[in-house]
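In response to a reviewer's request, we include the raw inputs and outputs for one of the modeled complexes. The two entities were modeled together in a single run.
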Amino acid sequence: MLETHQQSGENRALLVADSIGYKIRGKTILTDVSLQVQKKEIITLIGPNGAGKTSLIRILLGLSHASSGKVERKQNLRIGYVPQRIQVPDVMPLRVCDFLNVAGKYDIAQCQQILDEVNCGSLLYSPMQGISGGEMQRVLLARALLKKPELLVLDEPASGMDVIGQQALYETIRNIRDKHDCGILMVSHDLHLVMAATDRVICLNTHICCTGHPDDVSEHPEYLKLFGDAIDGLALYSHHHDHEHDIHGNIVASEHCNSCEHNEHKESQDKS
Amino acid sequence: MMALLNDSFIIYALAAGIALALVVGPLGSVVVWRRMAYFGDTLAHAALLGVALAIAAEQLPIVGVGVIGVSIAVLLFWLEKQRDLSTDTLLGILSHSALALGLIVFSVIQAQGFNINLMSYLFGDLLAVNQSDLILMYGSVFIILLVFSQILSPLISISVNEELARVDGVAVEKIRFIFMILLAMVIAVALKVVGILLITALLIIPAATARLFSKSPKQMVLLSVFIAIVAVFLGLYSSLSWDFPTGPAIVVSASFLFFVSRIFVR
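The model returned the following structure tokens for the whole complex.
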């Protein structure tokens, strides 16, 4: 008992990746990437497009094989995976409750309860083909949670959502960690939104540029170098002194320029 | 119809048709979900080669079909792993090579004095089904359905999304391979009933018809069995009434049900 208490790092990790390298057709996607996911830890992976985020996630999940290095998972690790989105073939009759039951046997009450938890309780009998992108993310999340995962892996869970939807989703994710006691690894572009819900940020661009607490990373020179062009290209935001908004600007420039919150900033600026 | 049932060959034909309906519904549903129609066609075309080889080796045709079907599945599996050609291209190659090879072997063994009727294999010969055929068919149907019921859940899982299935711990390759073998067995069962050229139709049409009425995957599986059985009844009845060839009559009945339901439902 005492011993297990003392072991803080290595042995309690859910997942350890050791100097992962990955090449496709001679092109280097990842070099020397090492990371650990601890129990109940929320890690956010950020990086520009083509940085290898999705490749890394796929390797950690065992969907792709690393060209070098190795991945060690805790024995019988239950992983819940939430992909960016999935396309259920139209030719397959599949309601949300059927989809939730694909990976195991859960009764209707369990399905309803988990859907309520991710705020889409009304979808139980909806056909999978008829739900919106945001609803799809929540249903995928519900499905992953039904497995009682020890590690939840989310690939850009908020892609295609408006800011309100994103905030609500991250709120849900934060609650999940507390309620389900699972480690969470997610890919995100929205550092400003995940800040509060993240213990550690890993900034990836083929290799790991920098890693640490979100506050530290946002000031890290490597991080600023990586997203520096975005800042120049969107000088609009550069006058914001507030820390959080600084990051907001950075990230927003790369992906989400049309969300309502940003337009507000723009308007207030135009007036000034 | 009741008067017709007094003839044993008709009862045999009906029994054989129902045997086929029991397996084309479930397997056909998965074929439709996974867009494997062309694969079914390939297996069917290759079956001709299997029949020809079996006759040459003085074995039961069903054995030849099974062996060739599994070989095609293995070959496709191997070719797909190389990833530089798409599956439909590979199937196009396999399908027509096997058919051409089958026709050559057929003509060779015909020249050697074997008296076999190519047409009966191409379009089936349901009314010639005998008791030992039936025993073989129902044995196969039993095995197919037994295995299918064991792998239905993972099959649904990989049909929805292969990557999610993989993360959930489904052995995707293994399940796919088992399904291919089951499909080869269905082709063997179908040989006498609708023949090689029409089997894909019977896999797809009842399942496609069932789609319209189904809300869940399992509903679609059960409903397509029912629709296939109705098609067998209609086909056999029209065949006996108007002297239509039986296999094509069953397929036409199935498509009749398909179009009628498309037009009148919703």
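As requested, we also summarize the result in words. Residues 49 and 102 of chain B are 4 Å apart (CA to CA). Chain B has a mean pLDDT of 87.
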